[in-house]
From TrEMBL:
GO terms for MF: death domain binding; protease binding
Coiled coil: none
Segments traversing the membrane: none
Family annotation (Pfam families): CARD
Organism of origin: Branchiostoma lanceolatum
Name the UniProt record assigns to this protein: CASP2 protein
GO biological process per UniProt: regulation of apoptotic process
Ranges of residues in domain CARD: 1-93
Length: 154
């Protein structure tokens, strides 16, 4: 495996531990690949670990020693086991939405002079003090009547 691919696996290890789901199917795909990335004893060794995290970790430790095609075969196996988003993360593939998010600009309205009711949400001074006004019976009846109108139309 190329140094770049080993580095990608290292940097994404936590992501992989959190997101790989179908480990048994993934191991089967790696075992059945054109150039088998793992053999039966390696699969047994990985599966002998007591927890899912440790099994995935064992596979991630094994992959860098499995030859120059191990990384690409791993990504193909991820796609075949319906975990393409994991392969996308490893291969640096960005979706159309992600591309748009990188260039997203946010416009903020200009500050108004009278901002008595504006409370910054990130003041980091503790709980936000908010004034909650009680609902008057007249307002409640008005809203209730509006909802009854809406539901009687159906």
């Amino acid at each position: 495996m190329e140094k770049r691919d080993r580095e990608i696996l290292r940097r994404n290890r936590i992501f992989l531990l959190d997101n790989i789901e179908s480990l048994d199917r993934l191991l089967s795909e790696l075992l059945a690949a054109d150039i088998a990335i793992v053999n039966d004893s390696m699969v047994d060794s990985v599966q002998s670990n007591p927890t899912k995290e440790r099994r995935i970790s064992a596979l991630l430790d094994l992959l860098p020693r499995r030859g120059p095609t191990a990384f690409s075969a791993f990504c193909v196996a991820l796609r075949r086991t319906d975990q393409g988003f994991v392969a996308d993360q490893l291969e640096g593939v960005t979706t159309g939405v992600e591309k748009k998010m990188k260039t997203l600009t946010v416009s903020v309205p200009p500050a108004e002079e009278n901002q008595e009711d504006v409370i910054p949400l990130d003041d980091k001074k503790g709980p936000i003090q908010a004034l909650v006004k009680p609902c008057t019976p007249a307002f409640f009846k008005q809203i209730d009547a509006k909802h009854k109108e809406i539901w009687t139309d159906y």
